[in-house]
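hey m, so remember when u said the tokens were messed up on ur end? i reran from scratch. heres the input so u can diff it against urs
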Amino acid sequence: MIYVMCLALFVVGLYGICCKKNLIKIVLGFIIMDYAVNLFIILIGYRKNGIAPILDKTMDVENFALSSVDPMPQAMVLTAIVIGLAVTALMVAICVRIYERYGTFDITKIRKLKG
């Protein structure tokens, strides 16, 4: 069920990117898609009643591997969040420069995109 919610969140972001004419709404669509993908990756590594992936001397190694949560998706999502933040900041900076140049965020009103 929660995977369907991730898909719905992704589709909402995709709708924002493909169908909206305002640059800010397009950036928000990208952010929503980014969060949907991050949530999906985290859910891949989730294990019901799982324990933290920290091994100490009192734990049984065989049962630890079967009952612990996979830490790799968590590490990947942390990296993806940082990269997504940098890409979002770049998109916002480009939107600001386009607004300074053309005076609008509407992509249908921007006639020529030349430097």
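this time it looks ok to me. The chain has one domain: 2-102. if urs says something different then somethings off w ur setup not the seq
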